[in-house]
Amino acid sequence: MLLNDQHLRNNRDWVTRLLNWYDLNKRDFPWRRKISVYHTWICEVMSQQTTMAVVVPRFEAFIERLPTLADLATVGDDVLRELWAGLGYYARARNLRAGASYIVSQRGGEFPSSYEDWLKVPGVGPYTASVISSICFLQPKACVDGNVVRVVARLAACHGTELWSDDGRTAIQNLVDTVILKERPGDFNQAMMELGATLCQKKSPDCGRCPVSSSCQAFALSQVEQCPPNKPRKDFVDVELLALHLWRASVESHGYSELFLAERRSGFLAGTVGFPLLRCEPGKTPENYLEQFSKSSFFRCVKLEKVKISHTITHHKLSLNVVTLELGDSYTLHEALDPSLVHLLNQLSISLNRPLWVSKNHASRSVASSLDRKIWEKIS
Fold first, then answer.
1. Do 269 and 338 belong together in one domain?
2. Residue where a domain stops, chosen among 176, 194, 226
3. Could you tell me if 66 and 190 lie in one domain?
4. In the chain, N or C: fewer CB atoms in 10 Å?
5. Do residue 178 and residue 277 come from a single domain?
6. Planar angle of CA 73, 75, 77, nearest 5 degrees
7. What CATH number should be reported for the domain holding residue 10?
8. Beta carbons of 172 and 144 less than 8 angstroms apart
């Protein structure tokens, strides 16, 4: 057996102690004050791989701007990006909107009430379906996130790396499904996650205040620090990029402004709007690209920014140089780019996806990803 868990299944006093502790110590979050399917869904997706200190203000701003399911289903890209700024993994926001659109168009705006029906909603996986169905509809479906894995691993004194395998996750899921209190499944799931987030933390767990320490085998064996084992890390892919800050001044009816070129990205970083990115060819340096840009009559100023930018996205470690290209006065700004400029960019393997000109004054709203904000900080 992967987990030495019979004592947890046979003697469930620890479940009662856990719930009593949760009732007295749960953190005050806005989505806990009154149960709402919409609010539960939003907060759950926002909090994936994001700290609560970041989530709470973004959640409140999101709900204020998009108070209903219908508002989310019809929100435009610019507003959605603005509301999701700082949370990362922008695909989560697009999935939320796709799910909201499905519920509005296919279910007449009525939320699913079962775990199985939530799985039919675009962008909703087993974990999200478990959270919503247990908290909002009292279905005894266990939620297994990193906090729950850690709590169970310590309760069962499991320190084998197989814990992180699919079989390991299944074993934990089966255990929690067995002991979850059917009268309070949502509270039980939140209590397990709350315990892992506050007392049973990865480093320096506070076993002295833990409500279930008397049932914890790792605590009894002085093995808390060894459980669970470190999750095997996936190899990172190193990516060298060149970010283009291509701009020019524009005198309009409301006065002087600076416009820079952005694109609506596809493929890598799909769904974000930001500076055009060029993946550097092996053996080619930023200076090589700079030389090619300098030969063009389009630009009156070409320079390589001194500060290099580092950024991590999922399993990619990005290293970026920024090239600033100032267009000359002879270049007329239009929605469509000059064909000769497009040809030049294509020669450098830069194929823009739905380019647009963005005013410097609106940069914070239009260019919302954490990567693009890093770039903007270096050039503004």
1. yes
2. 226
3. yes
4. N
5. no
6. 125
7. 1.10.340.30
8. yes
The residues facing 227 across adjacent strands are none
If asked whether residues 63 and 133 sit together in one domain, one would say: yes
**pTM assigned to the model:** 0.72
Give me the pLDDT at residue 208, please.
Answer: 96
Print the domain residue range for 283. Answer: 237-379
Report the C-alpha gap between 100 and 331 in whole angstroms.
Answer: 43
- Residue pLDDT, tens place only, 143-168: 999 999 999 999 999 887 888 888 88
Cα distances from 76 to residues 90, 148, 193, 306, in angstroms, run: 14, 36, 33, 36
The answer to whether the beta carbons of residues 292 and 325 sit under 8 Å apart is no
Reply yes or no on whether the pLDDT at 252 is more than 60. no
Calpha distance 259→4 (Å, rounded)? 63
H/E stretch holding 261 reads strand 255-264
Is 85 inside any structural domain? yes
Asked if residue 214 and residue 277 are part of one domain, the reply reads no
Phi and psi based region of residue 249 (left: phi greater than 0; alpha: psi -120 to 50; beta: remaining): beta
pLDDT at 255: 52
pLDDT value at 361 more than 70: yes
* 377 has catalytic annotation: no
* 338 φ/ψ angles, rounded to the nearest 5 degrees: -60, 130
Specify if 232 maps to a domain.
Answer: no
Cβ pair 307, 324 in contact under 8 A: no
Which amino acid is present at 255?
A: G
Tell me the three state secondary structure of residue 9.
helix
Number of domains forming the structure of the chain? 2
**Alpha carbon of 346 to those of 242, 286, 351: distances in Å?**
14, 17, 6
